[in-house]
Amino acid sequence: MGNYDEDTAFLGQKGPFFVILFFLLNAVYISTGLHSLYIVFVGASPSHHCRIADGNLSEEWLKASIPNETVNGKLQPSQCWRYSLETVRKLSALGYSPLEVNLTDISLETCVDGWSYSTDIYHSTIVSEWDLVCDSEWRVPFASSTLYMGYLLGSLVSGQLSERFGRRKVFFMSLVAEALVILAQSFSNSWLLFCVLYFFVGTVQISLYITAFVLGSEVLSKSLRVFFTTLGASLHYCIGYMVLPWIAFAVRDWRSLLRVLSGLTVVYIPLWWLIPESPRWLLSQGRVLEAEAIMREAAKKNKVSAPAVIFSKSENSKYSVLDVLRTRDIRKTTFLCFLLWMAINIGYFGLSLNTSNLSGDPFLNCFLSALTEVPAYMVSTLLLKSCPPRPVLSAFLVIGGGFLLLLQLIPESLHTLALALEMAGKFGFTMSFTVVYIYTAELYPTVLRNLGIGMCSSAARIGSITAPYIIFLGTFNKYLPYILMGSLTIASSIANMFLPETLGKVLPETLEQMQKCKRKK
Which InterPro entries does this entry report, sorted A to Z (predicted)? Predict the structure, then answer.
């Protein structure tokens, strides 16, 4: 395979073909932003207490039947215990009022009659529908983790499928499958079925994200490639992320919310006729004539003349996952990328999933968490235009991890400052998330790029799978999740410095070019 950028230089850098494709691919990322974090609202836990199934008790006794307990320094009604209903009934029948009785002498019992949930914020969630509280509280982080378990499978499978069948086919199959599975999920009649379907949502969702990313990286011009992989894809993902809380605010029943999110995917159907296959992939498969046909169509749209022969025929080899680990240099690059992706995913998804646990309005908190990402994407884009990605990534990781480690030093009374530090940490993780995608894409050659990013994304799922449980540790010590995430992130920033630099280098096409680059380094 020759030098693709030189062979296609006649198309220019910002003609109509590239600009239209740039916006079409970016538009798809709005859907990934809408679908990635709806569990924040679907799996939210409304205020609740034990149900008192006795219509004969006075309002005074109904309120007194729930003991108070201290949680994070605040006195609130117990969510998992009540005073013995039999004893309360006897005291009420004897004419006693709660003020005349020492309630602490009454034995406690679990919520044997179920729970009563507040509908002030959420009309219905999977928590209130299937009683995922108290002894079943662990099922909520597990449900969140099933999405990232699906990410793990999708990251592995999508790379193999797109290398075999092409980026475009896998891209659209993933888009349609995601909408259908989310729709099916809205009809779940049990927590187990919800989790199984959520696993498949994750499988096709990450497949869509990675394949669209690789498709844009391979088809767009060199000047638009950086904008797409940073400000373009990431900013449009953020747009979907920012729109999500307002849709959830308007649709507060979890089943209806999922149906609305699924239905919005219909607007992407026309893209089948507008987005072409990756010419780089076609060339890697030896399908030179098809690649040239796409380039000639692009030349017409850009109003330039195409040469008689655009690409020369060449011998092509097939590659598998084993090739990503074949030599010492490639293994070193791959394993260091694994560590980076895991650490960044733990921090990013951990903080994103934690928005419903923060004080204040959950819809506004989610919006602010998404809004924090906008300047992060812009700063990342500006820096990557002139700065080497390796030290930039390390700096962002230090920022993200450092602010989280500082949280334990903030007094309890300074809630606003603590929230600001958490959002600053999210800012650092978002910038890291942006840079690591484009940095990884530049490290791997075309013949292994989709496989390489897919494997890194698979390794990252170990991080995102554990993220809900790391946040769950906050029920034992509120600072423990921040200490763990911050420490791991600082460690990964050091490991990042052992990777090669890519600034000013041509995007590698073959395995040999990737190895040669490392030997020079």
Answer: MFS_dom (IPR020846), MFS_sugar_transport-like (IPR005828), MFS_trans_sf (IPR036259), Sugar_transporter_CS (IPR005829)
Question: pTM for the whole thing?
Answer: 0.78
**H/E stretch holding 387:** none
Q: What is the pLDDT of residues 471-514, one digit of tens each?
A: 777 767 777 888 888 888 888 888 888 887 766 666 666 666 66
Give 384: exposed, middle or buried? Use CB within 10 Å, 0-12, 13-18, 19+: buried
Is 240 found in the same domain as 112?
no
* Cβ contacts of 102-110, under 8 Å, gap ≥ 24: 103/64, 103/67, 104/67, 107/83, 108/67, 108/81, 108/82, 108/83, 108/84, 109/81, 109/82, 109/83, 109/84, 109/85, 110/50, 110/80, 110/81, 110/82, 110/134
* Beta pairing partners, 50: 115
Asked whether residue 372 is domain-assigned, the answer is yes
Residue 122 forms part of a structural domain: no
Question: What pLDDT, in 10s, does the model give residues 59-84?
Answer: 888 888 888 887 666 778 888 888 88
The three-state secondary structure class of 248 is: helix
**70 with 8, same domain?**
no
Do the domain assignments include residue 126?
no
Please give the share of the chain, as a percent, with pLDDT higher than 70.
89
Task: Please state the domain count of the chain.
Answer: 3
What are the φ/ψ torsions at residue 107 (nearest 5 degrees)? -70, 155
Average pLDDT over residues 135-155: 87
Residue numbers of the domain that contains 105: 48-117
Residues 370 and 349 in one domain: yes
| Residue 123 to residue 119: CA distance in whole angstroms | 5
For residue 314 the two structure tokens come to: 């060449």
Question: Phi and psi at residue 444, in whole multiples of 5°?
Answer: -95, 145
- What single letter denotes the amino acid at residue 29? Y
Report d(CA 250, CA 363) in Å as an integer: 10
Task: Say if residue 136 is in the same domain as residue 90.
Answer: no
Considering the domain architecture, whether residues 375 and 396 belong to the same structural domain is answered as yes
From residue 261, give the alpha-carbon distance in Å to each of 49, 359, 362.
31, 26, 19
Does residue 428 share a domain with residue 353?
A: yes
